Amino acid sequence: MKYNRIYKPKKFDNFTIIPSYILRHKGISIGATGLYAYLFSHKSEQEITIQFICGHFKESKGAIGRKINELIDNGYIVRKRVTEKGKFKGYNYILKAKPKPQKPKPQKPKPQNGPQSNINNIYTNTSIYNKSNINQNANIEKSFEHFIKLFDLRYQPKTDTQILNWKKCLDKCVTVDEYNLKDIYLAVKFIRNDDFWSEHFLSLLKLRNQDKNGILYIHRFMELYKKQNKPKCYWKIKGIKEYVIYLDPDGSKKLGAITKTNKLNEFNLSQFLDKLEIQQLKDFINGNR
Questions:
Q1: pLDDT (tens digit, 9 = 90+) per residue, 62-76?
Q2: How do the domains of the chain map onto residue ranges?
Q3: Which are the contacts of 140, defined by CB distance < 8 A and separation ≥ 6?
Q4: What pLDDT sits at residue 8?
Q5: How far apart are CA 91 and CA 243, in angstroms?
Q6: Nearest to 68 by CA among 89, 87, 46, 92
Q7: pTM of the entire structure?
Q8: Between 20 and 30 A from 252 (CA), which of 80, 127, 133, 261?
Q9: What pLDDT is recorded for position 109?
Q10: What mean pLDDT is predicted for residues 66-87?
Q11: CA-CA distances (angstroms) from residue 85 to 82, 267, 287, 289?
């Protein structure tokens, strides 16, 4: 399975020919235009990552990421997530010779509700959001207040602009990163209850920021959330890094473990785990393959 690749129309493969649409596109930044030209100068299936691009230009990962998002928002790039056996591997970037038209979604009529208290108005005032050109998701409007309550009051958005930005972030997690909104909520709730992340995940906007490896936090958090179903006995072995299934000389499959200081076979593990716990760990490993 190939990932972190560029794909573009074949007629452009052997020449650095830039489609003229982007050069005539009013309102797009010169930085995004230059990055588009740079990407087009590579052949299809060239391996590409933000780190790779940063090695060529002076810009930071964040700056490159913003330019890529600008190209995506304007329809010049389609970014596809690649997963293997349920695990996120990377992205493929499909370059378009002309912008992909963005189909607006129909808007639901606003319900005629009575007056609300000021604190409710903070979170239901969606006038700016409705006038924006982002791809709206009606479920975001319904669930937004639940997302807000996952954060301490001092970190919650209070201005129209802040609210809009949080909703935009959720919208991209759904439409660009292709996650289910319910799963996003459960993942955010899970991460916010973590001792470390409760002090370092203070804004929903972090979901679409990148870590030092260029991976969006939404992907990191979703992976952590998916791993929460580990059996309780998983952590009974001190310094555990991972459990593995290995083939015993007699041909049977056994449970092994890799810790920070040692490798343990099933006999070693049986000194700490009972038969039921060993079987639970085997089932967990087999279920995540």
A1: 888 888 888 888 888
A2: 5-95, 118-228, 230-287
A3: 167, 170, 171, 174, 181
A4: 67
A5: 28
A6: 92
A7: 0.40
A8: 261
A9: 52
A10: 85
A11: 10, 30, 10, 7
pLDDT for res 121: 38
What is the C-alpha separation between 241 and 228, in angstroms, rounded? 15
Cβ–Cβ under 8 Å, residues 3 and 89: yes
Enter the tokens of residue 288: 């995540």
> Is the pLDDT reported for residue 254 higher than 90?
yes
* Residue 284 near residue 234, CB atoms below 8 Å: yes
Right CATH for 5-95 from 1.20.120, 1.10.730, 1.20.50, 1.10.10: 1.10.10
The token duo for 229 is 């179903």
Q: What are the tokens at 253?
A: 């499959």
Inter-residue contact 130 to 136 (CB < 8 Å): yes
Task: Count, in order, helices (H) and strands (E) of the chain.
Answer: 12, 6
pLDDT at residue number 13: 58
Say which amino acid occupies 26: K
